[in-house]
Amino acid sequence: MKFIIRFWWLAVFVSSLTFACQPALTDSQPSPLVPLSSPSPAPASPQPPILEQTPVPLPLVPNFSRIVMIVFENKEFDSVIGSGKMAYFNLLAGSYTLLTAHHAAAHPSLPNYLSLIGGDTFGITSDCEDCFINAPSLPDLIEQSGRTWKTYQDDMPEPCFMGSTLRYAQRHNPFIYFDSIRLDSERCRQNVVPLTQLDADLALNDLPDFIFISPDICYSSHDCDLDLADTWLKGQMDKLYPVLESSGDPFLIILTWDEGQTDHSCCGLPDPAGGRVATLLISPQVKPNFQDETPYSHYSLLKTISAAWNLPYLGHAADAETSLITAPWR
């Protein structure tokens, strides 16, 4: 009997020890019967927004390094384009850009020359030599922009010469009519020069940014035949074009006529006006063998030069009817 009691007490004692060795369940330890929950995924890092690049629009007119304008005399479009006497001019017309609806501002010569650099005819209706103008002109704006200009006048006796000779006509030199140029003797003599100065400036690599060339009254075709004007033009182009091209900078040569032989008008000009004239744009930046049928006037040439150099528009160059020349550019 004592043996049975001792055995029972030993069993109880061992059982109590086993229970005491079990780890106690606490609030911080989940029951082994409850599965642990999966951890929540970390929030994704925000992605940077996709920026859409807006293409920068090309300028309406290239920013030419140099612009050259050569003006001939008194021929309607159909008298020049297709003429065998102007084979070189027509070769250029087929190689570069021809404006087929370009109109002169008026008759006679002088008002057209004034319109090309002043944006107006200033009420002048003759080839007067004492009708001076107190108004801004393209050279003023060119200088204000930090650029340079010069007009080379064929057969002009000396810089800033006043009056006309047998072959030099003052009416074909609009610069001398503006008070701010004519009355400033130093400015005038430096910038209004005979055409012979062009060779010296080419030799010195000292061409201005804006060049305006007037042939004399023979080579302009005013008094002589078209074939002489064509030969003279080729001589000037053979000197100018290689120098402009070798610079690697964009440039533009404008060939036009002061007036035609009819009274055709367009695009805001008075009716009658100065007729339709053949105008060429020669540059690596123009479309080759291209004909632009947009109606233009001399004021369009002034407007386009101003747009190329970010200059204010003078006079009728600012008119809505005066079209900016944009179609020919590559």
Describe what is shown at a glance:
By secondary structure, this protein is an alpha/beta fold.
Q: Can you tell me about this structure?
A:
It is built from 10 helices and 9 strands. The chain has 330 residues and is of the alpha/beta class. It has a single domain (66-318), classed as Alkaline Phosphatase, subunit A (3-Layer(aba) Sandwich). Helix 4 (109-118) runs parallel beside helix 10 (298-308).
> What's the story with the biggest beta sheet?
9 strands, mixed
Strand content: 5-15%
Uncertain regions: pLDDT < 50 for 5+ in a row? Answer: 1-38
Task: Output the radius of gyration.
Answer: 41 Å
Structural class by secondary-structure content: alpha/beta
The CATH first-level class comes to: Alpha Beta
The CATH topology is what?
A: Alkaline Phosphatase, subunit A
Number of helices: 10
Keywords:
30% helix; Alkaline Phosphatase, subunit A; alpha/beta; globular; 330 residues; nine-stranded mixed β-sheet; 10 helices
Describe the SSE topology.
Layout: H1 2-21, E1 66-72, H2 77-80, H3 87-95, E2 97-103, H4 109-118, H5 138-144, E3 149-153, H6 179-182, H7 185-191, E4 192-194, H8 197-203, E5 210-214, H9 226-246, E6 251-257, E7 276-282, E8 290-292, E9 296-297, H10 298-308
Parallel strand pairs: 1-5, 1-6, 2-8, 2-9, 3-4, 3-5
Antiparallel strand pairs: 2-7, 6-7
Helix pairs in contact: 4-10
